[in-house]
Amino acid sequence: MRCPFCGSENSQVKDSRPSDENSAIRRRRICSDCGGRFTTFERVQLRDLIVVKKSGRKVPFNRDKLSRSIEVALRKRPIEPERIERLVTGLVRQLESSGETEITSAEIGELVIAALRELDPIAFVRFASVYRDFRDAGDFQSVLRELASDGGGGREAGDDFRDSDDNAIDKKF
Ligand SMILES: [Zn+2]
Question: What are phi and psi of 42, to 5 degrees?
Fold first, then answer.
């Protein structure tokens, strides 16, 4: 594993333990050359996923990017890191088991929005407001209405989202 600090490929595992309810192995490593410490995770990967951007460009799915975008939405919210980790694992499993190798960034965004809606209303609004690329207060109100409704009627804002150009979500996944 290449050291993220100096680029050396010599590192030693100092500690190895199960993580994320035994769905991952967490390893603490130390670089033999610069002494830098970093953590790696080993996880089951059922399928190699490709994210299709709005432009049509394809990039490998990156779990860390997904995880970071969710962590940003949940910043300072009373949700334990383990719970976030489980959420991310659940989303990745959903994506991997969807039967499709290629998924659009918009599909990922909508999955995250649906998951955050269940988990935390503040994070839901934060995420939805960024990823649906809000242009005016009306967009914000439609998300609040979606939050207030009990499912079913909530797809309108998502449809708007898919039609909008140059979407922020494209840059994230
Ligand atoms: Zn190093």
Answer: -110, 130
Helix axes 105-119, 63-73, angle to 10 degrees: 40
Tell which wins on pLDDT, 123 or 145. Answer: 123
77 contacts 84 by C-beta, under 8 angstroms: no
CA dihedral 131, 135, 138, 139 (to 10 degrees): -10
> How far away, in angstroms, is 146 Cα from ligand 1 center?
48
Give the tens place of pLDDT for each residue, 94-114: 898 888 889 998 889 989 999
Q: 6 C-alpha vs ligand 1 centroid, how far in Å?
A: 4
Cα–chain center distance at 72: 10
The tokens describing 138, both together, are: 């009306």
Whole-number Å distance, alpha carbon 37 to ligand 1 midpoint, is 8
